Amino acid sequence: MTTFLAITISGLALGAVYFLVASGLSLIYGLMDVLNFAHGVFLTLGAYAGWAVAAHLPQTSMTMFLITAAAATTAGAAVATATELLLIRPLYGSPVGQILVTIGLDLALVGLLLGGFGSDSRAVAVPGWLTGVTAIGPERIPNGDFVTLAAGIAVLAGLTWFLGRTRYGIIIRAGAENRDMVRALGIDVGRAFTVVFAVGGAAAGLAGLLNSVAFSSGLVNPVQGDQMLIFAFIVVVIGGLGSVSGAAIAAVLVSLVQEYVTFYAGSGGGLAQLGNMSVVLVLAVVLLARPRGLLGRTA
What we know:
Elements: H1 2-32, H2 39-54, H3 62-88, H4 95-117, E1 122-123, E2 133-136, E3 139-142, H5 143-165, H6 167-177, H7 179-184, H8 189-215, E4 219-220, H9 224-239, H10 244-264, H11 274-289
Antiparallel strand pairs: 1-4, 2-3
Helix pairs in contact: 1-5, 1-8, 1-9, 1-10, 2-3, 2-4, 2-8, 2-9, 3-8, 5-6, 5-8, 6-8, 9-10, 9-11, 10-11
């Protein structure tokens, strides 16, 4: 029973990372009709920013780790904002152009990271308590799982409040439904959409750091964002485009299925990829039953 609990907590923590990445993707596509293939590199740059800042801090306290997390979040938001202002804004209404530009940006930035840092992973300096464990019966649960899960819950609560209770959140939702009407009221929709990109980039940057700490032995590498992006897209589609709540539910569903199948089916030989295959199977079942996703809006 305790083993099952450990796997569940690990799965929920992984789901929190998936949600942090997928929530930005879901908002950007569902509300702005922009398919952003560069979203994964926002995650990677956030992780590298956290690594760079942590290297110059005495990582012995919660405050120092929060500064590291703030650096990762800020880096993701900054790159996402620049991407929207300089590359995406001139291409609204041109889906093919958006796809080509974001793919090109991803390849270019990953190439720059490989050229600047090489393909070797870099270790993020974090407090010792974060790499420790908490004993629950005979099982030892990594503290990084608890921190990652708490961060995911906090971001979900923050996004729900932002979209439902703030002026910009209301403008964003209204602009997604009828952009021309909102403009006619004298509201700057473009600024609101820049905020969406910034929020999505910030969540991705935080996800990059937490994924490195909780699931990559504290290591960052130039291609980790692209690897995570595949699962984030699956979560977005299962949850429903534009639905933050749907992304949260789908992230938990995908991560738990992945963890349970990986553990109980065994991790050796040809069974090693069964966890990933099970995620694709979940996607297929959901699309057959609900083509618009669990909580996706109707066309």
